[in-house]
Design a protein that fits this description.
Elements (H helix, E strand, L loop, with lengths): L3 E5 L4 H10 L5 E6 L2 H13 L3 E6 L5 H15 L4 E4 L14 H26 L6 E5 L11 H21 L5 E7 L5 H9 L4 H11 L8 H12 L10 E4 L4
Parallel strand pairs: 1-2, 1-4, 2-3, 4-5, 5-6, 6-7
Helix pairs in contact: 1-8, 3-4, 4-5
Bound molecules: nicotinamide-adenine-dinucleotide.
Length: 247
């Protein structure tokens, strides 16, 4: 087994599931997250499975901090083949009540965070024989009331994906995105609390809206990311793959 990946937001939810899934493919996984504790637990699980794994606790909106984190992870792992930008936040409010800070925070974490991670990773990705970038968009790109910042950021991720695919395609670097539907993570559980809804009711509504009649699990997004990271998707770039249960 060889190769290495870096995953932002790797401490929890979808990012953590991606770290564990990619450990079947890669020898080393670098975990970036703002919160050190959960990220260290993921890294410990990876090391217990015989992988090399280190954590860099950094906020992805800190562009210089992300560069330092990526540089030191690449130095520790020896190479980089796949980078996944899964760090994300939600700060909901109806538009007239939305503060500029809430608007900017969500655009910054998703868009500036993805920009920073990809830009910092390029020198190492250029050395890979199968370089792949996977960004995380969302079904919310189609519109989500009370979260205009999030819907705009996730639609922006789609434009960023297609633009980077064009820019780096000539170098053989593939750039794709996964757009999940409603997945059981802290983010959606917090969403239920913010709406004053019981989790079962909130999740039940999302399940009822999907074709499969259930919400998704983080592992069901991670497996799609893994496909986009691996050689089986070698002719795919600039694509957004939906994992929504038919939402
Ligand atoms: N859960 C869903 O239903 C769903 C659906 C579509 C897309 N997504 C996207 O999937 C990604 C992961 O979301 P999740 O549901 O696993 O959320 P989560 O809250 O469970 O995990 C997000 C992780 O990102 C980290 N993080 C947040 N802001 C950060 C920052 N500024 N810098 C560094 N790390 C930061 C958090 O500490 C956390 O560990 C996000 O981009 C989210 O928008 C989630």
């Amino acid at each position: 087994m060889s190769g290495a990946a870096i995953v932002s937001g790797g401490g929890r939810g979808i990012g953590a599931a991606i770290c564990l899934q990619l450990a079947d493919r890669f020898r080393a996984i670098g975990v970036i997250d703002r919160d050190r504790g959960p990220a260290e637990r993921v890294a410990a699980d990876l090391r217990a499975a015989g992988r090399i794994s280190e954590v860099r606790a950094v906020d992805v909106t800190d562009v210089e901090g992300v560069r330092d984190a990526v540089d030191s992870l690449v130095a520790a792992m020896g190479s980089l083949d796949t980078v996944v930008a899964a760090a994300g936040n939600m700060v909901g409010a109806d538009l007239e009540e939305m503060s500029v800070a809430a608007w900017s925070s969500v655009l910054d974490v998703h868009l500036t965070g993805s920009f920073a991670l990809v830009r910092a990773s390029l020198p190492a990705l250029r050395e890979s024989s199968n370089p792949s970038v996977v960004l995380i968009s969302s079904i919310a790109a189609r519109g989500i009331a009370g979260h205009a910042n999030y819907g705009a950021a996730k639609a922006g991720i789609m434009g960023l994906t297609r633009s980077l695919a064009r820019e780096f395609g000539p170098e053989g670097i593939r750039v794709n995105a996964v757009a999940p539907g409603f997945i059981d993570t802290r983010m959606t559980r917090d969403g239920a609390v913010q709406r004053g809804l019981d989790w079962k009711e909130f999740a039940g509504r999302a399940a009822a809206a999907s074709a499969l009649g259930r919400i998704g699990q983080p592992e069901e997004v991670a497996s799609v990311v893994d496909f986009l990271a691996g050689p089986d998707s070698s002719y795919m770039s600039g694509q957004v793959v939906y994992a929504t249960g038919g939402l």
